[in-house]
Specification:
six-stranded parallel sheet, alpha/beta, 339 residues, Rossmann fold, homodimer, Quinone Oxidoreductase, Chain A, domain 1
Chain lengths: 339, 339
């Protein structure tokens, strides 16, 4: 076991678009576990859009990421030393290990570290389809959109970890599912591999009228549910096609993460169409995770919930992979492989 | 009984702000009731913001008002001739009589005409606090905002028929209630007569920062519920003060009725604050009217739900009164007295 733990800290807060210089790679000494503690070697680090919000100082999803501390993030790994009776060396675990190669945690705190079964589900999936992104998809779809069979559900960022799961969960429930993604490759994947009914390449539709027209073609009976991962013009275009009593689950607004608010063009459509728009953060609904993870795990284990991963190699490449994610350069769940 | 019925028709659709020339006063012959029919002399006509939406051709709340037909509208009146066994001459009734002095209706259709009891509730109140505006207030407050005791509820157009009822219903439920209204007189009325905890005069706050600052002072613990009657800058200012898990009942957006959509400045706050924004039209929730009317009628009869009326005299003055309503010139429920 190496005695050094490499870590990435938040070195400064971005003004506008973040860059590699907002991060700093450092080496820290690695301690042996104390009583109740567990040392985990992280195998995969999860990169997620919410981290962009944490980089800001102001009010966002949650507390800002403190400066000069290890960047927050979900991890999966293996126990390499334990002084906690519930964890053995070799156990596979999921936790919030952050952007570092090892984590030393007090595992007696409930929920900090969870053992996972990798017999039928790959370890990395616990950061994606059977982890936070999967539960995010499940919550927004099942608890906010609540589609009936035959309704039409639209999903933005459809080839991503969350969007892909939303669409497949909606198909399981008998909905017509239309994705929105950037580029022909992603759209082909969304339709051919994930089984969506259609996918719109937003890069081919640069203005509201064009995108709204494409939605009209893809959703001949209008839009009953929309899972919002993006914001900006895509939301405006979907609202123009929204049916009476349609529901919008607002999960992310990547388009606005860099500080400039992007207005909603026609909020009166909320009234005209009697829409419901609801924002949510999945970590505030922990009571539903077991139900969600059960469905997601079963679907992955039986091959009915598919996903793709973009894997960067090595901790030192995490910042660049994260910046790419914010620009939509990933294809599927963005991970960093640390081992 | 006169043999002539004066009526106001929609003569043309407005482009932008409507004017008196969009309406036309005509005289029509008055027929005796046929089998099953009832002739009602309308005592009061209700003027409501939703009528502006009906004047447009495009998609709005409902079907557009047809050209050269009697303007739609709620009325209360008295049966003056009846060939329907359920209605007697002298019965007081509420219905959708439209902008005219008499209505001849097939009263066998369920819900077209309803008898009302004026022992403890004045006839005109069935167009206001114990009518559509009251039920609108009730639905948005009880079914969407659902305030808990101690929460803060903000109401725009607070001196109006809907807004005034929202605030008083919220007070009954133990909420702190802050109104927004135009002018010192209206604000005084909202606090002194209706019992709101505070009222902000939006005319004293011409920009977002100023209005948002006034809201911060009036709502030291933030905003948990907002009843939206106006749209535009007021909604933006409230969203800046919204608490986590706050709810917005979107009932009207007068600010945008003239066709120009007014953007929502910072929709990402829906996500940041995990808000729920829901539009509704009270006529789509008829199953809840009995429950709502029971509470509203009891509160009015016992003096715990107060309201004010702006009464224009004579059918010929209805267009002007309606245009004034759209500009906020009314003070309380806008009626036209026809008798």
């Amino acid at each position: 076991m190496t005695a050094v733990n490499r870590q990435i800290l938040l070195a400064s807060r971005p003004s506008g678009e973040p860059g590699a210089d907002n991060f700093k790679l450092v080496e820290a000494p690695l301690s042996e576990p104390g009583p109740g503690q567990v040392l985990v070697r992280n195998h995969y680090l999860s990169l997620d859009p919410y981290m962009r919000g944490r980089m800001n100082e102001g009010k966002s999803y949650a507390q800002p990421q403190p400066l000069n501390e290890v960047m927050i993030g979900g991890t999966v790994g293996e126990v390499v030393a334990s002084r906690n009776e519930h964890f053995q060396v070799g156990d596979k675990v999921v936790g919030m290990g952050g952007w570092q190669e090892y984590q030393l945690v007090d595992a007696s705190q409930r929920g900090v570290l969870q053992k996972v079964d990798t017999t039928h589900v790959p370890l990395s999936a616990y950061l994606g389809a059977v982890g936070m992104p999967g539960v995010t998809a499940w919550y927004g779809l099942v608890k906010i959109i609540a589609p009936k069979a035959g309704e039409t559900v639209v999903v933005s960022a459809a080839s991503g970890a969350v969007g892909g799961a939303v669409g497949q969960l909606a198909k399981v429930r008998g909905a017509r599912v239309v994705g929105i993604a950037g580029g022909a490759d992603k759209c082909r994947y969304v339709v051919d591999e994930l089984g969506f009914d259609a996918c719109i390449d937003y890069k081919e539709h640069r203005d509201l009228k064009s995108l709204s027209g494409a939605l009209k073609t893809a959703c001949p009976e209008g839009v009953d549910g929309y899972f919002e991962n993006v914001g900006g013009m895509i939301l405006d275009a979907v609202m123009l096609r929204a049916n009476a009593f349609s529901r919008v689950a607002m999960c992310g607004m990547i388009a606005g993460y860099n500080g400039e608010p992007i207005p909603m063009a026609a909020p009166q459509l909320i009234l005209v169409n009697r829409m419901k728009i609801e924002g949510f953060i999945v970590s505030e609904h922990m009571e539903l995770w077991p139900e969600a993870l059960k469905e997601l795990g079963t679907l992955v284990a039986t091959g009915r919930l598919k996903y793709r991963e973009s894997v960067a190699q090595g901790l030192e490449n995490a910042p660049e992979a994260f910046l790419g994610l914010l620009k939509g350069r990933n294809f599927g769940k963005q991970l960093v492989k640390l081992i």
